[in-house]
Amino acid sequence: MAVPISQMYTVATYVLKKRLAGNKRYPLVLMLEPLFRCNLACAGCGKVQYPPHVLKRMLTPEECFAAVEECGAPMVSIPGGEPLLHPQIVEIVNGLIARKKYIYLCTNALELKRRLPEFKPSKYLTFSVHLDGQRDHHDFSVCREGGYDLAVEGIKEAVRRGFRVTTNATFFDGTDPNSVRAFFDEVMDMGVEGVVLSPGYSYEKAPDQNRFLGRARVRRLFRAILSNRKRSWKFNMSPLFLEFLMGRRNYDCTPWGSPAYNIFGWQRPCYLLQDGYAETFKDLMETTEWEQYGVGSGNPKCANCMVSCGYEPSAVMDGFGSLRGFWAMVRGSFSLYRDRHALDLLNEPAPQGPGRRSDLVNIERSEKEFEETRR
Ligand code: SF4
Ligand code: SF4
What we know:
Layout: H1 5-20, E1 29-32, H2 52-55, H3 61-71, E2 75-78, H4 89-98, E3 102-107, H5 112-115, E4 125-130, H6 135-141, H7 147-160, E5 164-171, H8 177-189, E6 194-199, H9 215-226, H10 239-245, E7 260-262, E8 265-267, E9 277-278, H11 281-287, H12 308-321, H13 323-334, H14 340-346
Parallel strand pairs: 1-2, 1-7, 2-3, 3-4, 4-5, 5-6
Antiparallel strand pairs: 7-8, 8-9
Bound molecules: iron/sulfur cluster (2 copies).
One iron/sulfur cluster is lined by residues 253, 255, 269-270, 272-273, 293-294, 301-302, 305, 307, 309-310.
């Protein structure tokens, strides 16, 4: 596992304290979105389609600090939008470091190389660079030729300056598992701490609705990608969440584990869905009808979801919440997941080219068809 010991210790003691206090629902990572504006317009993005007057709005540093303190989670992920477009992002990051929060600053890295001199390396700060695969695949995914090369320049400079760096990939239908495995080799050679992965979520607002995977196809894709892995590959995620993606274990969604705060307030119930907003974190936790969400709820919006913000907290709480879970996590950290069937999956004909439309599954948007039965 690529996560440093000090961060693991902080999270483990936090989970144990919550369990000993009898808390059933508690946050692990705050998804702090200081703005929705971005310098890219990716086809699978659910954030940058807001009207211009919303895209102009931003959280102030004071609003960010108040949300972080109110929430109390040990980790803060700063997605967006593109956080490096926020004029006070350095002040926000420094304020969170002073509060000893482990920060994942998610960036497409177009601006990273230029902005790096404004930041200081810290064990609390990780640049989580959006990189969706090898050059052609990434450029297709972010709808920008040259996006990969700029991101890689930013990654290499950040590594050279001593920052913690991870890559952050979202995979959609049409992904070639062999290309993803070659991509792991490439990013590990860049010196990153580890890779973060998630299947895409079928945002209603995303411009390309034909790219999203059903659960059975997610498991098949990730079984092919993550089985028979190389020792050199490091993942900055819970090994139990990776087993969940591979279809080796099942979890219920715990959306309160990654609460989302943005210019509208505390978003119900998770980073992906927008079923209203609460004014305070307490209100979010106490008045959200949590039983209405997750695959088991029968909510069609959740039927095909396996994304990290809903299910990785479940895996982390399992891993640090019992001896059985801890042992499974340790075993998963060292296992290479030998699997003959997964090797056969790698020998199947690859999708032709990076995400060609002809290779994508056409997912209709009626509620009836949002069932987990989709393959
Ligand atoms: S880089 Fe991120 S925030 Fe920007 S358009 Fe792409 S997915 Fe959306
Ligand atoms: S299943 Fe997915 S969409 Fe539904 S609440 Fe959980 S994270 Fe959100």
